[in-house]
Amino acid sequence: MTDQTEGRATTPLPDIVTTIADRLGRDQVFGPPVERGGTTLVPVARVRAGGGTGGRRPGAGPGGGGGAGIVAKPVGAFSIRPDGKVAWHPAVDVNRIVLGGQIVFGTVATLAVLSTLQRRRRRRTHLPRLG
Question: What is the reported pLDDT for 51?
């Protein structure tokens, strides 16, 4: 994205940020409306963007670079009925639900194992020693 000349980027950072912001127009957040049976659906996504640049100190030779990334996730859709009523329909993230279940299961399993080990230790300390 930038040419490196003597350790300096030739494209200023504000120009890069402006270019990325221009590319993140309303079509990146709101999808094209779809009409079915008089009801219009407008899909909505959450868009995150980030980036950065880096370089060497002047006189240290060529080097440096930069990068940027954009992540868009669907969050739901607005439905607009013919009578003008608008409703929000959230998207269900099944991966998030499964991850939550795995975390709960792992926590319960860990607590069960710890409880069993603690009971065994108590039994061993109360038994009389032979010999």
Answer: 77
Element (H, E) at 109: helix 94-126
Angle (CA) 14 19 20, round 5°: 100
The CA radius of gyration of the chain, in Å to the nearest whole number, is 28
Phi, psi torsion values for 44, nearest 5 degrees:
-130, 140
- Is the pTM here over 0.70, yes or no? no
- Using CA atoms of 16, 22, 23, 27 in order, give the dihedral in degrees to the nearest 10: 160
- pLDDT tens, residue by residue, 50-97: 777 777 666 666 667 777 777 888 889 999 999 989 999 999 888 889
Whose CA is closest to 49, among 32, 82, 73? Answer: 73
Q: How far apart are CA 65 and CA 56, in angstroms?
A: 9
N-terminal to C-terminal alpha carbon distance within the chain: 80
**Amino acid occupying residue 99:** L
User: Is residue 56 a contact partner of residue 63, using CB atoms and an 8 Å limit?
Assistant: yes
Which tokens hold the place of 45?
Answer: 């996504």
pLDDT in tens, 71-81: 888 889 999 99
